[in-house]
Write a structure and sequence with these properties.
- This protein is of the alpha+beta class and 608 residues long.
- It contains 12 helices and 19 strands.
- The strands form 4 sheets. Strands 1, 2, 3, 4, 5 and 6 form a 6-stranded antiparallel beta sheet that branches. It has a 6-stranded mixed beta sheet with strand order 17-18-16-15-13-19. The chain has a 5-stranded antiparallel beta sheet with strand order 8-7-11-10-9.
- Helix 6 packs across helix 7, helix 7 packs across helix 11 and helix 10 runs antiparallel to helix 11.
């Protein structure tokens, strides 16, 4: 049933798509209708304007007009005005703008001089023209004046102006059939309404567009809200005589009215088909219910751990029979797989134990290799000369004739010799393969031993070593193993700086608290680690050093040591552009309060 319900979604989407597509098609048809009506209405309007031109042509040749006879012109103009309701007034002036005839009695207060711009324009150009939207000086109403020159032979004697009755211009379009709510609008080049088939008095002079659009650039069709706020599909047709634009707007609701019947029929068909589909799905689901229930019980038995193959039963169709056979095959395969998995787990357990044993051996071997390098280079050079120095110092101290200053110098030399002997002792302890059981370890002591071991080599390589020990908390581990990890970090940092060819280098050993853990970092200013090598840093036998310079086991062994104590080991870039290797270990739970608070204020910093 759920799947069947989901199948209804494509049908619903198809209905919506069909309705949207049909509405778009009807809207295109409506745009075409509006464009055709606009062209027809523009032709009607052009015909009326041509009639005005003919009337003006006849009047311009009338003897009374040519003779500027005021009394005769008033009578002629008044007669024409009664027969032509689309004219608001007929006005005759001489070339100076003095009124010589009018169809509408002039108000005495206005005077006899016509100051409207069309008089000067016609006299200047000696050609007919159409004025902008204006208010008639005599009639006092909004109008557009069709102005014509009046000649007596070749002499220009005056101007004849026909004022168009914009309010009554809508009567030209009354015979054009349009849907309810449609509107025909005539606008000028400034997008101002000159005539409108609905509410003309209200909107004449109102700008249709915020920005004036020349008639030649107006699209043939458009969809927008009219100045009355009603969305319409507009067809636009230019009228070169103006230049004006005639727009026919048909409400977009007409599209919905035309689409609604088709949408309702489609909706009824889809609803009927959906109901039939649901009924069919219900019948099929009931027919298959019993067989699926038996298969569900078999699946639950297998999920509970009983991997014995289910007993075949009769099923109503071939598909369910194949599913049942698949269940039987699956149960047998799972049983075989579980037995194989048990054997594999046992093998992996033995392999893990063997691997742990090998790892412990590798730890010891790596430690011996590191100590071998140091002992061969330091202990051999220092041990024999050191014994001779100490023996000679003891003999000199027995000489009673030596001055006090000389004895002080001998004591200083003896102290430094004792320090060198301490280094040999540390090397000997580090080389021992018996690391001993874990104990409380102060990582500051570990750092101190590593500093003593590496002091000479670092000085010889002009590498400055800084120690920033800010924590005194201890960990539960083996001192020698932590010394090996730290020593590996320092040796790697030294070799990285030397490989980069630096004249001077810098290494910082930092010890800080990190929540319930303590963190030791070794930071250098070498070239760092390339991004492609980072994932392989702690893999066994991976090394970037030349052949004979490294075994590739140092970081791998360090990783095993830190992991064995429940800690974390890792690498990151630093602000110097070099590498920072670090490890974190849990603090020991049985520390005394004195151990935790011995370094509460400040940090211990030493520089080599």
């Amino acid at each position: 049933m759920a799947v069947t319900s989901l199948l209804i979604i494509p049908f619903a989407l198809a209905v919506v798509w069909s309705a949207t597509r049909t509405r778009a098609e009807r809207q295109v048809e409506l745009s075409g209708q509006a464009g055709a009506v606009a062209a027809t209405a523009a032709a009607y309007l052009s015909q009326y304007l041509s009639g005005f031109d003919a009337t003006a042509s006849v009047l311009a040749r009338h003897p009374s007009v040519v003779g500027l006879d005021r009394e005769s012109c008033d009578a002629v103009f008044a007669g024409i005005l009664r027969e032509q309701p689309l004219l608001l007034n007929i006005l005759l002036t001489d070339v100076n703008g003095t009124m010589k005839g009018t169809a509408v009695p002039a108000v005495p207060a206005l005077g006899t001089v016509i100051t409207m711009p069309y008089v000067h324009d016609v006299v200047t150009t000696r050609r007919p023209m159409v004025s902008e939207l204006t208010t008639g000086q005599v009639s006092g109403k909004p109008t557009v004046i069709l102005a014509y020159p009046v000649f007596d032979g070749e002499l220009l004697v005056g101007t004849l102006g026909l004022g168009v009755n914009l309010t009554a211009l809508q009567s030209v379009f009354t015979s054009i059939p349009l849907p309810e709510g449609s509107v025909i609008t005539v606008t000028d080049s400034d997008s101002r309404v000159l005539a409108r088939s609905r509410d003309a008095e209200r909107f004449i002079g109102t700008a249709v567009e915020e920005r004036a659009v020349p008639p030649s650039e107006i699209a043939a069709t458009s969809i927008r809200s009219g100045i009355d706020g009603i969305p319409r599909v507009f067809g636009n047709s230019p009228i070169a005589r103006g230049p004006w634009v005639l727009s026919v707007g048909i409400p977009t609701s007409v599209v919905d009215d035309r689409v609604a019947p088709l949408f309702r029929r489609t909706l009824v068909i889809v609803a009927a088909a959906t109901i039939m589909l649901l009924v069919l799905a219900l019948w099929v689901s009931r027919a298959l219910g019993v067989s699926l229930h038996n298969l569900r019980l078999a699946a639950q038995r297998i999920a509970g751990g009983d991997l014995s193959p289910p007993v075949p039963t009769s099923v109503p169709n071939l598909e369910l029979a194949e599913v049942q056979d698949s269940f039987i095959t699956m149960a047998a395969s799972l049983r075989d797989a579980r037995e194989a998995l048990d054997r594999q787990i046992e093998q992996e357990r033995k392999m893990r134990e063997t691997l742990q044993s090998l790892q412990r051996q590798v730890v010891r071997q790596e430690r011996l290799a590191a100590v071998g390098v140091l002992v061969s280079g330091v202990a051999h050079e220092l041990n024999n000369p050191l014994q001779a120095i100490l023996g000679t110092l003891e003999l000199l101290e027995r000489d009673r004739t030596l001055s006090r200053n000389v004895l002080d110098e001998l004591a200083f030399v003896k102290t430094q010799s004792g320090r060198a002997r301490e280094i040999i002792r540390n090397l000997s302890r580090f080389s021992s393969q018996q690391s001993g059981p874990p104990a409380l370890v102060d990582l500051r002591d570990v750092i101190s031993e590593v500093v003593q071991l590496r002091r000479r080599d670092l000085n010889a390589s002009s590498i400055a070593l800084e120690v920033d020990a800010r924590s005194s908390r201890r960990v539960y581990a083996n001192f020698t193993e932590l010394e090996q990890v730290t020593l590996n970090f320092v040796i790697n940092a030294q070799q990285s700086i030397e490989a980069a060819g630096r004249v001077k280098g810098r290494i910082v050993i930092r010890l800080v608290d990190s929540g319930k853990k303590i963190r030791l970092e070794v930071q250098d200013d070498g070239p760092g680690v390339s991004p492609e090598d980072e994932p392989k840093l702690f893999q066994p036998f991976f090394t970037t050093k030349p052949v004979g310079k490294g075994t590739g086991l140092g970081l791998s062994v360090s990783y095993g040591i830190i992991e064995s104590y429940g800690g974390q080991i890792g690498y990151k870039d630093n602000e110097w552009g070099g590498a920072t290797f670090f490890f974190e270990l849990p603090i020991a739970e049985n520390q005394t309060s004195d151990d935790r608070t011995s370094v509460l204020h400040g940090s211990v910093r030493t520089k080599l």
